[in-house]
Design brief:
heterodimer; A: about 120 residues; mainly beta; B: about 120 residues; 6-stranded mixed β-sheet; 5-stranded antiparallel β-sheet; about 55% strand
Chain lengths: ~120, ~120
């Protein structure tokens, strides 16, 4: 079954404690991306990757890191989480051509609370 | 400010009626995509329309694109209670390969379909 998986689904942590949210896709997609969703602000892109070892900033990259060492995995790292990073996070993947990223397949989401 | 802005923010209709949602954007695009999100879940891709297309259909969905007005509309015909969800448009801001592959989502439209 084609899917994007994220772990964990729910996480409560404290300020400053490093954490990683994993994302994996089994569709051999080139393009992977992380978004955060906050009430009234919609979905905002944090980082994206067009292929292995190719990453770039989205609209809200501050406080986040990513890496793309393998095509299927795209972890999101919060080195020192702060309460303003409390949010619902989505990973997504898609094919990618000269026309840009295509249909995005979304993971189920990770609800993060930083106290 | 958002690249894609949906309008209206919320829409409430009776089952069987048609629902029309609009999306406006600011810069040239390669394609525009519409997504649906059921409460708290990952987004699901509905339809993609390329910049050289004016209209596209998929089941009860009809999408139009007017690049001169930088706007798109999503029409859901004969709505059902199960169509109740949030709807988002998403655009890639630059048409040039590699120049900017961010995917920008609007804030979403909340559609309620009353049985």
């Amino acid at each position: 079954e084609a899917q994007v998986t994220q772990n964990p689904r729910y996480l409560i942590t404290v300020t400053g404690k490093k954490l990683t949210v994993t994302c994996s896709q089994n569709m051999n997609h080139e393009y992977m991306s992380w978004y955060r969703q906050d009430p009234g602000l919609g979905l905002r892109q944090i980082y994206y990757s067009m292929n292995v070892e190719v990453t770039d900033k989205g609209d809200v990259p501050e406080g986040y890191k990513v890496s793309r060492k393998e095509k299927r995995n795209f972890p999101l790292i919060l080195e020192s989480p702060s309460p303003n990073q409390t949010s619902l996070y989505f990973c997504a993947s898609s094919t990618f051509t000269r026309q840009g990223p295509y249909e995005q397949y979304f993971g189920p989401g990770t609800r993060l609370t930083v106290t | 400010s958002q690249q894609g802005e949906e309008d209206p923010q919320a829409l409430s209709i009776q089952e069987g009626e048609n629902a029309t949602m609009n999306c406006s954007y600011k810069t040239s695009i390669n394609n525009l995509q519409w997504y649906r999100q059921n409460s708290g879940r990952g987004l699901v891709h509905l339809i993609l329309i390329r910049s050289n297309e004016r209209e596209k259909h998929s089941g009860r969905l009809r999408v139009t694109l007017d690049t001169s007005k930088k706007s798109s509309s999503l029409l859901i015909t004969a709505s059902r209670a199960a169509d109740t969800a949030s709807y988002f448009c998403a655009t890639r801001q630059s048409p040039y390969f590699g120049a900017n592959s961010k995917l920008t989502f609007g804030k979403g439209i909340t559609l309620s379909v009353r049985p």
